[in-house]
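Task: complex structure prediction.
Instruction: return structure tokens for all chains below.
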Amino acid sequence: MTFIVKLHRHFQRTVILLATFCMVSIVISAYYLYNGYKQENEASELSSEVECGDLPMLLSPWKMIKPSEPLRTDPVVLVFVESQYSLLGQDIVMILESSRFQYHIEIASGKGDLPVLINKNKGKYLLIIYENISKYVNMDSWNRGLLDKYCGEFSVGMIGFQKSNDNTLQTFKLKGVPFQIHGNVGIKDCCINPHSPLLHLTKPSKLDKGPLPGSDWTVFHINHSAYQPVVFAKVRVPENLPLAAIKNVLHATVIHDLGLHDGIQRVLFGNNLNFWLHKLIFIDALSFLTGKRLSLSLDRYILVDIDDIFVGKEETRMKASDVQGTMWQDLPGIATCQNASNMIALPRKSISAGQGPNKEYPAQEMALSKL
Ligand SMILES: *[C@@H]1O[C@H](CO)[C@@H](O)[C@H](O)[C@H]1NC(C)=O
Ligand SMILES: *[C@@H]1O[C@H](CO)[C@@H](O)[C@H](O)[C@H]1NC(C)=O
Ligand SMILES: *[C@@H]1O[C@H](CO)[C@@H](O)[C@H](O)[C@H]1NC(C)=O
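Output:
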């Protein structure tokens, strides 16, 4: 009998223990569920930033295009670099060179010393490029006045780059620029403003969503109608940036100053030209700011280097009969450069951003096409 009572008590204790355990686990899982829900809420708040598909038309483009005055300036670009060896400076020069545009390089000094700009009432430069836009905004007021007067008088535009030089997250403003800039942030979901008047080579087609490599991007806040974004991006939430600073704000990695306040159009790039899309926009900016005087045609050519086929191993080597029998003989518009370079050129449609086989390296594609 006592044995049965003992067993019964033991059983009761076990049930109570089990019940308590259940309660505790319910409470714990409820706690985590609630927290998870809260985090999800925050995430969806972040993604309420403006989507690319329904971008507002910020300003009608035809309002600010000024007539270009081709006869008043020489077709030479003035490039201010940080040093002879700076990487971005070399990238800028490489694009100008491969496009066969004339340029003149100056090392940007702290005071902002300028070369002679005018020769016999004719402007010597049709576009100014600053590798470091800080060198322009911080130059002394005398030189700044001279340069701005030159740009205004000869309808000369400007391209500048804003690159952060250390690895810490920065939020700052440039002198005379009415919006905030974040340096050293990660970005994602970038897209092209289809209303930008700059676009020529670049097509505002849909780009893949998702993060872009690197966390050293510079983005501009857009909250001013005189500055039109060209490439939008969302900021990846950095831990040490207050959420409020980036929430519901449009950010751009390339911005177009329409010149409404001082008559000078400028295109500002965050970071550099490593991003392939920035290279395309840079080429379009050259064209737009110079009234198409420095413009590339939309025809693209592919070069196929075939000389290795003729010196290959015995059985893979090509013979004259193979060449004569190949399909490229029948293609229209073909040019075969025989003696000099063993290259074959095929006409090809213009590159559309985010499409085509060589999406990662359109610049290489372009470089090829220019050889
Ligand atoms: C740009 O120029 C400013 C001086 O005006 C300098 O402090 C800064 O380090 C330069 N930025 C880069 C990336 O070289
Ligand atoms: C734009 O942002 C700047 C800097 O954050 C601020 O001072 C200015 O008032 C803003 N302008 C508008 C129109 O919101
Ligand atoms: C290539 O070279 C051959 C002889 O070496 C010459 O007859 C021919 O005209 C050349 N072709 C071109 C396109 O220059």
